[in-house]
Structures are given as structure tokens and as C-alpha cells.
Write a structure and sequence with these properties.
Blueprint: E1 3-6, E2 11-14, E3 23-27, H1 38-56, E4 61-67, H2 72-81, H3 85-102, E5 110-113, H4 118-130, E6 134-136, E7 142-144, E8 168-169, E9 181-186, E10 195-197, E11 200-204, H5 206-218, E12 224-228, H6 232-247, E13 255-258, E14 261-263, E15 266-267, H7 278-283, H8 288-297, E16 304-305, H9 308-330, H10 339-357, H11 362-381, H12 387-404, H13 411-424, H14 433-439, H15 443-458, H16 462-474, E17 477-482, E18 485-490
Parallel strand pairs: 3-4, 3-12, 4-5, 8-9, 12-13, 14-16
Antiparallel strand pairs: 1-2, 6-7, 7-9, 9-11, 10-11, 14-15, 17-18
This protein binds adenosine monophosphate and zinc ion (ZN).
Adenosine monophosphate (AMP) binds next to α1 and β12.
């Protein structure tokens, strides 16, 4: 049973679906106006951890994510580029999914694009207007009247007593401290893209998008709603107001907010200019698996300060896990089962599960697995790992990896993908020279060289063996001789 902090109640609560058939969750998706930065992906990776942990519990999931493919920034950028908004967003939507795949983030069951759900939004606004929660202004825009919803502020715990009735704001992202009537529907400014609807010409505000699509695909009451901490106010507060005023039901029973990724103590963000995209890091030679590991290893309730040292540490951690996994598959088997190791494995598995169940404490969960790596390696050094020991350890690693998803080595293919993209976009100058050199060698070619080196050593041609080793090292390929044989890996 997973216990998770609920922003709405301020308490840790057991997570369970209201209706046993499936767990219904909604996570705010990206605004596809540019490449996402790794701060955005920290949130998506932690939602993925939640998703995977729920599946591990045996729950059936219905997870919906929106794609915001129309908003102020998209309209501005598409106009600057001189292309229709759909053409402009398509490229960044594709890039977003490529980045999710690189980070092994599983896709939700439903992807809902704002521009494909306009009529649902229009109906929701009409429903609000019919009950006196929405009003139209002279320019043809529609606003939500927050003074009609006394519970406004219950999620972010803001005191809104000084709020001015009727003060309005029409930008999607506004000052974090001022509660104002917010736009549900925006009349078009000259030259802007618009939809002709029963509300008049215009386009939806950002907040109504999520309310309308969440309820369309999941029903009036969701089991859980997720997003980054910056969305708590005003976005999620506005979603609650719109949805609960329309339906008179609780909108989401549980609110899950992922804390920020920081750079030198400040939120990583486009506007601060202190961001890295996933592709920036891949081109510098960092591995996708290490980036995922870094983003998820600090629990979602804590902010995470991004550093390159931290990333290098996670690269080593993933290598250590993979080497151990390999070793448990191939190490020579002892005939007798090591009872002590069997018991240690059981303790580690329980520690892993307990960590996840404890408010998705990924740090605790992974620490238990590294305890297992230590114990397993000591036993393997002593030749004391039996078939049964190895099987139970491998099963534990499988369970760990169903959530952490870092054992399978796709890193080289992902880096190759990033390089191809950089070449197409004319950005190869952003790639580190060793990354370009390393990718020039296929896995088959490396394997052949490694075998040639082994042969050279056997025939005591140490000069040739050393030469191969050094050449490969210069291209970022490391050969490791161990008791269990020769392995190579890309640095
Ligand atoms: P956006 O595409 O800007 O709407 O953001 C997508 C998701 O990333 C939202 O859930 C944001 O809350 C989240 N987000 C934005 N910046 C950060 C950050 N520095 N750390 C963690 N999550 C973030
Ligand atoms: Zn949203």
C-alpha cells in the first residue's frame, strides 16, 4: 500500500482508487512551444515513478496527460516563424515524446491535445455561465468569477481575503500572489488564431483545458492529479474552481506535486536562462540513464540541486548496477545455497518496497538495492552465489527496475539519436568531440577489437593488446578485465 502526501489535505494518505476498476490519474503535460528542459523532465520522471509504483501494486491505471498545443507563447512563436500553430507545435510535440522515450518514461494511456478538445471546453464554459460562475466582457472574452467560489485557495492555502472582486487577468501565467478572475475564453487579437464557437470567436485559456479534458476522459472525480509545484497556484487552484463549480463534486481526491529542479538554488527555467535540455546533456556525453537516475533518486518532495558532479555520480551508480546485474547472470555458481545471502536479499527487497510505499521515497528504495549490490558482490568474490541465490537476486533487480528502469543499456543508441538530431538541426558544434569520435565505432567493431586484443594477449603480443586498449580508451571505450571475463563499455 502506497502512502503519499496529499497537497490538498496536507497529510500522508493511503493511495487507493475510488472505484476498484482502475486508478484514474491526470498529469499536466507540456506546452509544446520549445524543447523541454530537464526541470520539466524531473516532474515527468517522478510521475512515471508513481505510475510504475502503482502498477507494481497491481492497480489498473488510466492515466491522462494533456498536450498544450495552443497558448500565448505558441501563438507568438508561430507568428514569428510565419507558420500555422499546428505546424509549429508538431515538431516540439515529437521532440517531447522522443525525450520521454530516452528517459524511459512510459506513455500515459490517453494523450489529449487541447486543440482537439475545444468543443468540450466550450461546453464546460457554457455550464459555468449557466450557473453564474462565468461572465463575458465587452471584448468577447469569458472570465471565471472567483468570488462565487468561497473555497478558492484551498489547495495552495492562500489567504484571499484582500482580493478585489472583478479584478481580471487574461495571461495564462500570472503573478503568483494575486488572485484574480481568470480567462476561460480569450477573444482573438487581430491576426491571432481563433476558433468560431457558440461562445464567440476565440481560444481557450490554459486552465479550462485541463479541467475539461481531465473530466472528459476520467469522469467528474479523479483519484489523483499531478504536476510540478509551480502549477499549484494559480493553475490547479483554477482547475478546482472551474470543475467543482460545474459539477458540485470533488474534482481530485489526491494532489501530487513534484518539487523543483534547481540550479544554484534557483528554479531551472526558460525565463531564468539557467536550463539544460536533455539534448544539451546528451551531446556533452552524459548518458540518458544517468540523467533519469539523477532526476528520480532525490524523492519528489525535496527540491534537487542540479550539478555535473551529481550527474557523474549517477553515471557511476548506473554502471555499478549494470555490472552487478551482469555478474549475477554470469558468475560461476556455487553448489550450495548461501543462506545468509538469501536472507540479506529478502531484507533488501523488503527495504525497496518499504521505501516506495513510504511516500515514494526513492532514495530509501534505491539504498536498499545498493545494499544488495554490496552483499552480492562480497558473496560472488568468495564464489558463494548459488543458482538459487542468483535467481532471487535477479528477481529483486527486476522488481527494482520495473520502477527505476535503468538496467537495460540503450544509452549509446540514444546518444547516437541526439547526434543525428544535432546534425539535422545544424547543431553539431554543440557536441563534445569525444562523443562524435565514440559514436564513429559500432558495437560490432568494438567487439571485434576487444576479441583481437584478447587473442593478442594470449599469443603474448602485449604491444598490440595495449595499443588496442589505448586506442579504444581514447574514443571513450573502456575495457574491463574481471574474473568472469572481459567486458567493454562506453564511458
Ligand atoms: P510546462 O511545459 O512549462 O507547462 O511544464 C511542464 C511541467 O514541468 C509542469 O508540470 C511544470 O510544473 C514542470 N516544471 C517546470 N519547471 C520545473 C523545474 N525546474 N523543476 C521541476 N518541474 C518543473
Ligand atoms: Zn494542467
Amino acid at each position: 500500500m502506497i502512502r503519499l502526501f496529499n497537497t490538498l489535505s496536507g497529510q500522508i494518505e493511503v493511495l487507493a482508487p475510488a472505484d476498484a476498476s482502475s486508478f484514474r490519474m491526470y498529469a499536466c503535460g507540456p506546452t509544446v512551444y520549445d524543447y523541454g528542459h530537464i526541470g520539466n523532465f524531473r516532474t515527468f520522471c517522478h510521475v512515471d515513478v508513481l505510475r510504475r509504483a502503482l502498477l507494481l501494486e497491481g492497480l489498473k491505471l488510466r492515466h491522462v496527460m494533456n498536450i498544450t498545443d495552443v497558448d500565448d507563447k505558441i501563438i507568438r512563436n508561430a507568428a514569428q516563424a510565419g507558420v500555422p500553430i499546428s505546424e509549429y507545435t508538431k515538431k516540439f510535440e515529437r521532440a517531447f515524446f522522443e525525450d520521454l522515450d530516452a528517459l524511459t518514461v512510459a506513455h500515459p494511456e490517453v494523450i489529449a491535445r487541447a486543440t482537439e478538445n475545444i468543443s468540450t471546453m466550450v461546453r464546460l464554459i457554457q455550464r459555468l455561465a449557466a450557473q453564474g460562475y462565468a461572465y463575458r466582457t465587452e471584448d468577447g472574452s469569458w472570465y471565471f468569477r472567483i468570488s462565487r467560489f468561497p473555497e478558492y485557495g484551498k489547495l495552495s492555502k492562500k489567504d484571499l481575503s484582500g482580493m478585489a472582486d472583478g479584478a481580471r487577468v487574461d495571461v495564462d501565467e500570472y503573478e503568483k500572489d494575486s488572485a484574480r478572475d481568470f480567462a476561460l475564453w480569450k477573444a482573438p487579437k487581430p491576426g491571432e488564431h481563433f476558433w468560431q464557437t457558440e461562445l464567440g470567436p476565440g481560444r481557450p485559456g490554459w486552465h479550462i483545458e485541463c479541467s475539461a479534458m481531465a473530466m472528459e476522459y476520467l469522469g467528474d472525480t479523479l483519484d489523483l492529479h499531478a504536476g510540478g509545484e509551480d502549477l499549484m497556484f494559480p493553475h490547479h487552484e483554477n482547475e478546482i474552481a472551474q470543475s467543482e463549480c460545474a459539477t458540485h463534486h470533488t474534482f481530485a481526491r489526491h494532489w501530487f506535486h513534484v518539487r523543483f529542479l534547481l540550479v544554484e538554488g534557483r528554479k531551472m527555467s526558460k525565463s531564468e536562462g539557467n536550463f539544460f535540455t536533455l539534448r544539451d546533456l546528451l551531446l556533452k556525453g552524459y548518458k540518458a540513464s544517468a540523467i533519469r537516475m539523477l532526476l528520480i533518486s532525490v524523492p519528489y518532495r525535496q527540491q534537487l540541486n542540479f550539478t555535473f558532479e551529481g550527474l557523474a555520480g549517477e553515471t557511476a551508480a548506473v554502471d555499478r548496477l549494470r555490472t552487478f546485474h551482469q555478474r549475477m547472470m554470469s558468475a560461476p555458481r556455487a553448489t550450495e545455497t548461501n543462506r545468509e545471502l538469501l536472507a540479506e536479499t529478502e531484507v533488501c527487497l523488503r527495504g525497496f518496497r518499504a521505501g516506495l510505499e513510504n511516500d515514494l521515497n526513492t532514495a530509501e528504495a534505491r539504498a536498499a538495492i545498493f545494499d544488495l549490490v554490496r552483499a552480492g558482490n562480497i558473496a560472488a568474490d568468495a564464489g558463494a552465489v548459488s543458482e538459487e541465490n542468483a535467481a532471487v537476486i535477479l528477481e529483486t533487480l527486476r522488481e527494482f527496475d520495473s520502477v527505476f528502469a535503468v538496467l537495460e543499456d540503450r544509452d549509446s543508441a540514444i546518444t547516437k539519436f541526439a547526434l543525428d538530431w544535432a546534425e539535422q538541426e545544424g547543431r553539431l558544434d554543440q557536441a563534445a568531440p569525444e562523443v562524435i569520435a565514440q559514436q564513429g565505432l559500432s558495437d560490432e567493431r568494438i567487439q571485434a577489437l576487444v576479441e583481437e586484443r584478447t587473442q593478442a594477449k594470449r599469443s603474448r603480443n602485449f604491444a598490440r593488446a595495449d595499443q588496442i586498449r589505448n586506442d579504444l580508451a581514447g574514443k571513450g571505450i573502456l575495457i574491463e578485465d574481471s574474473k568472469d571475463g572481459v567486458r567493454w563499455r562506453r564511458k
